[in-house]
Design a protein that fits this description.
Blueprint: E1 2-6, E2 18-21, E3 32-42, H1 44-51, H2 55-58, E4 67-68, E5 73-80, E6 92-95, H3 105-108, E7 132-136, E8 140-142, H4 149-152, H5 158-172, E9 178-182, H6 188-198, E10 202-206, H7 210-218, E11 223-225, H8 231-239, E12 243-248, E13 263-271, H9 282-288, E14 291-294, H10 300-311, E15 318-323, H11 327-335, E16 342-346, E17 354-359
Helix pairs in contact: 5-6
The structure holds zinc ion (2 copies).
């Protein structure tokens, strides 16, 4: 099969993935499923993997290279292990990004992200930037009738990550409160839609890119700001003291030490983006009673909920599609923010195909 493989880490991000023919994955365990990849979202985590940010955590010897990234996958079941009963070849599915054991206590509580025996295809083992990809039955959600893999693939990670954070925020927000989203990219634009559906609050979207600002307006943000040097003052003026909840989808490049300053007293910061280091005086936490917490991807059940919102047309992915052969162009465009929303790799598409930005619509 054709696949895009990473051969080296490079903090300067100048490496290119190699497009090559490699053996297709095979079933080794009874619960495994081979998925024919319909589409695979391109994630900032993929850029961080290339940069080597994850190297010490998952590959300190560099011995996992080369491998296939891609952890936001949807497609059609191609082959199933002998123990698989819930899906069959031909079924359209979206893949929760983790392969979980189902047996550990965290799994039994439904905390998939904290499964003690998890595997994460696309991070250190082969993922979906290929024609076929292997996962397990527990990770799969059958798509609703009329929903195509291409219209939902990035929901598998970008989508649920935004959904989990926004759902948590929605529980904290009352009508009249302000929620503020930092970064209206592949995740931020989903969070905005989820807040519109699940919270009665007002929203501020902050992004320095004009394209992202337009998208935020289209998606119903009450205020859209460019994040200039006066941001803190602007937010205080609009909100009368600060946002009740800030969701930071950037988490680096200095934003990590700006985000908590946008909160009102008693406010909550939900960190989703990562890479930077927060430095905050303890007095600030105490005197202003602000809370800071992280939010990691999402549980299987949260992906099920998000797929229902998507099937009802309430949360849609705004995306730009690239052929597998053009994945290096996609990475370049992503790094340089030449598209808004999510970049999506489509293994079945002919090279040089680049579908201009659009909101993915299901084929009903
Ligand atoms: Zn991702
Ligand atoms: Zn487990």
């Amino acid at each position: 099969m054709k696949a895009a493989r990473l051969y080296e880490y490079d903090p300067a991000m100048n490496v290119r993935l190699k497009i090559e023919d490699v053996p297709s994955p095979t079933i080794d365990r009874p619960d495994e499923v081979i998925v024919k990849v319909g589409a695979a979202g391109l994630c900032r985590t993929d850029l961080h993997i290339i940069e080597g940010v994850w190297r010490d955590i998952m590959d300190s010897h560099g011995s996992l290279l080369p491998y296939i990234m891609g952890h936001e996958n949807a497609g059609w079941v191609e082959d199933v292990g002998s123990g698989v009963t819930s899906v069959k070849p031909g079924d359209a599915v979206i893949c929760h990004p983790l392969r979980t054991c189902g047996i550990c206590l965290n799994c039994r509580h439904g905390h998939d992200m904290h499964c003690q025996n998890n595997l994460f295809p696309g991070l250190g083992l082969d993922g979906g930037f290929a024609e076929y990809f292997k996962t397990s039955e527990r990770s799969l959600i059958k798509l609703n009738t009329g929903i195509t893999p291409l219209s939902v693939a990035p929901m598998a990670d970008a989508g649920i990550t935004a959904y989990r954070a926004a759902k948590r925020a929605a529980k904290l927000l009352n009508p009249g409160d302000w929620a503020l989203i930092l970064g209206v990219g592949g995740l931020g634009h989903i969070a905005l839609q989820v807040l519109n559906e699940m919270a009665g609050c007002r929203t501020i979207a902050v992004d320095r890119e004009p394209g992202a600002q337009v998208l935020a307006k289209e998606l119903g943000a009450d205020k859209v700001l460019s994040g200039g040097p006066d941001l803190i003052e602007e937010v205080r003026q609009i909100t009368g003291g600060g946002a009740r909840v800030v969701i930071d989808f950037v988490g680096e490049l200095g934003v990590e030490n700006l985000c908590w300053k946008l909160l009102k007293n008693g406010g909550d910061l939900i960190m989703v983006g990562y890479g930077g280091t927060i430095e905050i005086p303890t007095l600030e936490l105490v005197a202003r009673e602000i809370r800071i917490g992280g939010s990691l991807v999402g549980d299987y059940t949260e992906l099920v909920e998000l797929m229902e919102l998507n099937a009802d047309g309430k949360v849609k992915m705004h995306q730009t599609e690239f052929a597998l052969e053009d994945i290096n162009t996609a990475i370049d465009d992503f790094k340089n923010r030449r598209f808004t929303g999510r970049g999506v790799i489509v293994p079945g598409a002919p090279s040089a195909r680049r579908v201009e930005e659009r909101t993915a619509e299901a084929v009903k």
